[in-house]
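Hello again,

I reread your note about wanting to compare the complex against the isolated chains. To keep things tidy I'm splitting this into two emails, and this first one only covers the full assembly. Below are the input lines as submitted, including protein chains and any nucleic acid or small-molecule components. They are followed by the predicted structure of everything together. The single-chain runs will come separately.
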Amino acid sequence: MHELSVVESMVGVVLKHAEGNRAEKVTSINLVLGEMSTIMEEPVKFYFEILSKGTIAQGAELNFERKPLIARCSVCGKEFKVIEYDFTCPDCGSLETEIVSGREFRVESIEIE
Amino acid sequence: MEVEVLEGVFDANEIIAGENRKLLGEKGIFMMNLMSGPGAGKTSFILRTLEGLPENSRIAVIEGDITGKIDSERIARTGAGAIQINTGGSCHLEAKQVNTALQKMNLDTIDFIIIENVGNLVCPAEFKLGEDLRVMILSVAEGDDKPLKYPLMFTESDVLIVNKTDLLPNTDFDMAKMKSVVMKMNPDVEIFELSCRTGDGIASWISWIKRKVPGDAVG
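Full-complex prediction:
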């Protein structure tokens, strides 16, 4: 249950950007969550409700966009969806790959008033 | 109005991890982050490592536990400096807690820091601490299916220690299958099979880590 400290820092990011834009209220928060992230939506919502209380983000809607786990082969350049965490390139069989998406937990944007 | 943010939620932790790394770099200290589920043998592995390195090695251990100081007391008995961090319920260590611990230590008298993370196969993998090396332990008693159940830990680690190999005859643990799964997830990982109880296999880990820690700090 590491979502508590993670949501603390998420609320910090949201408030920093909201206040920097002189917002009076944050109405929604758009989050990007990778398939491989260990973060779960439900506890994020639960802790957000508690941690945003009394701030301008209280009551904001949380929208999650899930990103699939995609890797790129460093040898042949092929981008492929990783299935069952097997990072072998389906085209050339190389294991020299890098993750393109699927690891992230990011605040993409916020809607403010 | 929509405002673009594009900021990772873990960025704040990673900035502090970077500061830790810089501080350790200036002091010429090598730091290892040891992670595993509860009971896989982290403390026993540290004790075996301390025992295997030369007596005059300048090593300190940072112990992360939710509560209590049993582990740091076990370590302190070896003569190595041990600092206990109690996370007070939190399931992992964060860079900030390690930073606070580093401030309390006399870094001029240390060459090698071992961090024993909180026993948990999930959360610690998400939090960089500023370490040079990430080591995880899987004990055979936990089963060979763990890599696909807790993938992030296995993809994030530089070293996989397979502990409690003395129990192999009493389990269905399929070493070859587990290794082939892990090698597809993380082809660069170094794997050591050993038993902290019998001492079997410890020597090859010791000679590897001796080469890994720069200079002649640990002999």
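For quick reference: The first helix of chain A runs from residue 3 to 20.

B.
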